[in-house]
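Two folds, back to back.
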Amino acid sequence: MTLQQIHIHNSADSASPRVDQRQPLRVCHISMTLLTGGLERLLVEIGRHCDSRDFQLHFVTLDQVGQPARDLEELGWPVSVIKTSSRQSKWGRLTSLTSLLKDGSFDVIHSHNTLAHFYAAVAAKWAGVPVVVNTQHGRGCGSSWKARMQFRIANLLTDQIIGVSEDATELCRRDDPISRRRMQAIWNGIDLKRFAFTGPQQNPIGISVARLSPEKDIETLLRATSLVIKSHPDFRLKLIGDGPERERLHSLREQLALGSHVEFLGERHDVPSLLSSAGFFVSSSRSEGISLTLLEAMAVGLPIVATDVGGNPEIILDGQTGRLVPSKSPETLAAAMCDMLADPTLWNLYGTLGRQRVEDQFNITYMVARYEQLYRDLVHQRQLHS
């Protein structure tokens, strides 16, 4: 078993009241990975927008690391990696995490999703950390009985459970009715400075940003595209992202004779400029919490065609900022895309209203401020009862 800890001090500066005026609260974020993904990108944004006068952050991953870990280090926050070999048990991971939390003297543990939540809640209890918070980034705590049991056990040791959408929060309440009073929703947010409003380009280009994995259901999007080009042969689709289904989806593109219509761009670091080159955004996902990619597309000013799943209806106002359609249906997705292509005069209106909605409801500064106030309130409650 190895435990890697990298400590780098943050020099960011901002002002806000503190619970303890003598020193900032120490908050440890714990996730299973720091690979490229929506959850991990959100952790980087939390690190970027944290009020460092009031909070000192530490990030822990219980498995793999990637670019988000490097981004957090560049922001000046320490990152710790806990790995266990195949011969070592989950007990080893738990004891290493407990040791790290004891050494860190943390005020708040903030775990992300169910498995990390289970490890973090137990380790925090053993380490004597006073406040434990969990965020569920998908829809509910997971589909298996094991995930539900881990969720319920961890919740007994947790002060507040957050869903990133009202939909996700309600599913968490159903999964653990005993803890429902300690659950609330805090919508995800994005950095509007990184996604400047440009509005849609008046060209027949759709764009999608998604991990190439089963829950994103890119197959449905490809099949819908094969229907769209029958009436709009000039339509082009750009797909940004990578994942385990890449080879299968590339093969499907060839089977559907979409080689000249669909472009796989892979992982990209110029997403804002790519979004600003398109006419509209399309998502075929089967499951979402609060999709950062939808928020980013709306911030740029793109009209949206997306599936009516998870938190998507909380983001998209159907008929005002875009269109919502049933999931797993190439025909209905294609029909909505064709409707969008048939009336580009609506694109600017959809895009403007979409940008305004993100500014009003899904700004990263609002999200971070709500989490920081939650930390203050919970620590203050503990201090009153100690």
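---
second:
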Amino acid sequence: MADNTSAKKASGNSFLKKLWSSQVFKVYLIMILLYVAACIVQPNYLSWDYINTLALMASILGIIAIGQTMVILTGGIDMTIQYSLTLGVCLITAFDQDGKTIQGMILAVVICTIIGFINGLGISLIGIPAIIMTNAMNYILKSVVNLYTTGTPRGVAPVAWKNFILTSYLGIKGGVWFWGLLAAIAIFLISKTNYGRKLVAIGANRSVANYSGINTKRVLISVYTLSGMFIGFASWVAIGYRGRPFLSVGDGYDLMSVASVVLGATSIMGGKGNYTGTIAGCLILQIVTALLTTIQIEEAGKKVIYGVIILVVLLVYSLSERKKKR
């Protein structure tokens, strides 16, 4: 009897030790503590309505971060988010104004996917560094958006779609349900499939991945293509939530998506991580953003804080990895 009790106690201790050693668990713990602190600063945050709205606001970043997580797992980065998202939103409202809502929404995803595919070609086949290729593409898209909209985006969000995004079903807003569906697909794809294992292998060591029979060029093209596709899906939620298009709709999401992935315990160097942690990273950033807005910090100040968050997290993870190697 005593042996059984000791075995159960040892098993329980082992579970708690394993749980505490999990980076993802720590991220979720930080998220909860940060939310509690936010409720102390602003008691109105302590309500289901606020949590629901917070999750809806985070859903745009969350969907974008699916692609960014996959890209960073391979050791890359996608910086085309700002104007890919803006272009997608502008296409949806322009087509809706002409009575072609469904065509506009489909076209937004198709165009963003093509942009991602072009990024993948440049990075994989030509060998352009990801940060240069995607930043250059972002500048090109800025001009495309300005030419397409002539500086003034037209139209508003499709009414039916806006209602779906903002309406609660079983107590949860439609936009959050949409994020949840895509998140479930992403977690399965990254954690449970051979494709996800290839992403990790490429990020860990591209040369070894090549020698092991992985077609790294094909995988890299596909991962940037998927990143573009998820930006297109994010434009659906963005227009449903925002209600109308504007040229700054994509501002900040490039840096925030990287921050959410890094916060979620995915290595910025690639080869380690998952989307489960990124979800918590997105919610943490949304709580921080809400707090910064409450105390009236301007957009430039928010970007500085996001940058500091990335640097601090990278420093903490770097020190943690050094301790493990000792």
